[in-house]
């Protein structure tokens, strides 16, 4: 009898420790999500250099992830820790709709960032003509229209469950039927994922071709440290981190999402569903790091915002020793001449598109995120 009571006390103690640990981890994710995305918004607000059309997508992503951290994640954490839904069934539908809408908007913003950088690289001369404030505004409207259509509309009309699932007392879960699970996953994840992989691979190929052409210059070998060349390995690592984080965070969730729709909720354990859900939420905490600190202009803005380091206009330039100054000047002239040679990019219709250095400056600094290579 006494042994049985000791076993129960040990079990309760272990459950309490587990609950506290989970609560701490979830709280950290929420704090990082909110604070990180607030910093991104402040950095753009206080730094005019960052107020570009390209960074509109970064700010849109930050605002979306911030709303997710404020409106969805706290309630998800309370429900995860207590395993009890303390609010009404109506608010449960609103909560689930906000969850789907904001996660979808976050993914679509990432998708649009990849397309923006792709066109900046492959069509640099037409990029400034195509990407206008009106075009960016239309894209933002498209993102939110799609997000609402796959969240509030089907959930409140019961299309996600066909009206076959009733609310359980003190429970709140998103019902998924086969059609809704497949359509939602394809539109908001799998199709954007395939396109993102293709665009980032194309961007990497162009950066690698440029790096090889520049690094083959004889003068580049003598003063390699003093030239603004593209570091192929770091560019590869940067793109791998961006795509790797996106796939790791969201691929398990949408795989389980489709499986739930086909097999039913009983086929997926609550523990697995919680892990993949919060793994997806974690992507909103990583986005400010990946799309902020990997960008040199954002790093400078962060430093100025936190007053950790005041970066002057010449801080990016590598110091040269006197013996290399004249050599570097002559080498840079050859480098600029070499970079002005058009880089032939073959389009799908078989025509060639000359990509000049003026067009490559933007992709190197924004599309490839090579600011991290300094």
Describe the structure.
By secondary structure, the protein is mainly alpha-helical. It has a single domain (about 1-310, about 345-374), classed as Rhopdopsin 7-helix transmembrane proteins, CATH 1.20.1070.10. It has helices spanning about 1-45, 55-70, 75-80, 90-120, 125-130, 135-150, 150-155, 180-215, 220, 230-265, 270-295, 295-305, 320-340, 355-365, and strands at about 345, 350-355. Strands 1-2 form a two-stranded antiparallel ribbon. A hairpin with a 5-residue loop joins strand 1 (about 345) and strand 2. Helix 1 (about 1-45) runs parallel beside helix 11, helix 2 runs antiparallel to helix 11 and helix 4 (about 90-120) crosses helix 5 (about 125-130). The longest helix is centred in the N-terminal third of the chain and has 45 residues, at about 1-45. The chain starts with a helix and ends in a 7-residue tail after the last helix.
Features:
374 residues; mainly alpha; Rhopdopsin 7-helix transmembrane proteins; two-stranded antiparallel sheet; 14 helices; 2 strands; 2% strand; globular; receptor
Mean pLDDT: 78
CATH superfamily: Rhodopsin 7-helix transmembrane proteins
Q: In whole angstroms, how far apart are the ends?
A: 68 Å
Total number of helices: 14
What form results from the Cα inertia axes? globular
State the CATH class: Mainly Alpha
Residues in β-strands, percent: under 5%
Task: Please compute the radius of gyration using only Cα atoms.
Answer: 25 Å
Under CATH, the topology can be stated as Rhopdopsin 7-helix transmembrane proteins
Compute the number of strand runs: 2
Question: Which structural class is indicated by helix and strand composition?
Answer: mainly alpha
Question: How much helical structure, as a percent, in the residues?
Answer: over 70%
Q: How are strands sequenced across the largest beta sheet?
A: 1-2
């Amino acid at each position: 009898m006494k042994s049985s009571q000791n076993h129960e006390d040990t079990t309760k103690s272990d459950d309490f420790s587990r609950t506290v640990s989970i609560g701490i981890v979830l709280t950290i994710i929420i704090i990082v999500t909110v604070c990180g995305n607030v910093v991104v918004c402040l950095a753009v607000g206080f730094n005019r250099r960052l107020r570009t059309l390209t960074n509109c997508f970064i700010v849109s992503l930050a605002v979306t992830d911030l709303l997710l951290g404020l409106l969805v994640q706290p309630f998800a954490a309370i429900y995860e820790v207590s395993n009890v839904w303390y609010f009404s069934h109506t608010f449960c539908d609103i909560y689930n709709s906000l969850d789907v809408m904001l996660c979808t908007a976050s993914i679509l913003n990432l998708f649009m960032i990849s397309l923006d950088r792709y066109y900046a690289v492959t069509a640099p001369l037409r990029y400034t003509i195509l990407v206008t404030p009106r075009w960016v505004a239309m894209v933002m409207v498209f993102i939110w229209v799609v997000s609402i259509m796959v969240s509030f509309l089907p959930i409140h009309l019961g299309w996600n469950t066909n009206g076959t699932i009733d609310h359980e007392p003190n429970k709140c879960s998103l019902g998924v039927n086969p059609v809704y699970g497949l359509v939602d996953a394809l539109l908001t994840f799998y199709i954007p994922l395939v396109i993102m992989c293709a665009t980032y691979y194309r961007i990497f190929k162009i950066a690698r071709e440029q790096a090889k052409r520049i690094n083959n210059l004889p003068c580049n070998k003598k003063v390699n440290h003093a030239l603004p060349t593209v570091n192929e390995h770091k560019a590869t690592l940067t793109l791998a981190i961006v795509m790797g984080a996106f796939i790791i965070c969201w691929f398990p969730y949408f795989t389980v999402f489709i499986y739930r729709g086909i097999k039913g909720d009983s086929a997926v354990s609550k523990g697995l569903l919680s892990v993949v859900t919060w793994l997806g939420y974690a992507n909103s905490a990583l986005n400010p790091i990946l799309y902020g600190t990997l960008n040199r202009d954002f790093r400078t803005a962060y430093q100025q915002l936190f007053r950790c380091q005041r970066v002057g206009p010449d801080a990016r330039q590598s110091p040269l020793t006197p013996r290399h100054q004249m050599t570097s000047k002559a080498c840079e002239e050859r480098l600029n001449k070499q970079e002005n040679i058009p880089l032939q990019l073959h389009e799908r219709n078989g025509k060639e598109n000359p990509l000049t250095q003026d067009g490559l400056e933007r992709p190197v600094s924004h599309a490839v995120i090579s600011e991290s290579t300094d």
